[in-house]
Amino acid sequence: MDDDLARARLTELGRSARLRLGELRASFDDVVEALRDSNADDEHDPEGRTIAVDRSMIDTLAKDAEAQLAAVDAALARLDAGTYGVCERCGAPIADGRLEARPTATVCTDCARAT
């Protein structure tokens, strides 16, 4: 995969993950703020999810976005170092199709299958 194309795709993935992370943090803050102003006994409300479930779900999604950001940053560092697209396990090139599908891939398809 061309370095400029890879950098553009990774930059866009990072931008998207940062945006999603910001939205999730704002949602988490909204849930916490709503709880602060509420006297609700949501643990015994048969009408829907609890506030704890909402907070847990938002926290899980935020951790996923943070992991994606870390993977993007690592991929950009590999791009800068000239090792992007090289399998970290066997040293073989990672196929362009795999990098298109998973721009942050660190291993080739053979090594990925072996895990």
Strand content: under 5%
Low-confidence stretches: none
Alpha-beta content class: mainly alpha
Number of strands: 0
Task: Give an overview of the whole structure.
The structure is a single chain. This protein has helices at about 5-35, 50-80, 95-100, 110-115. The chain has about 120 residues and is mainly alpha-helical. The chain folds into 2 domains: about 5-85; about 85-115, no CATH class. It is elongated, with a radius of gyration of 20 Å.
Provide key terms for this protein.
mainly alpha; 2 domains; 4 helices; 67% helix; elongated
Can you give me a brief rundown of this structure?
With 115 residues, the protein is an all-alpha fold. Helix content is 67%, strand content 0%.
Describe the protein's topology.
Blueprint: H1 3-36, H2 51-81, H3 96-101, H4 109-114
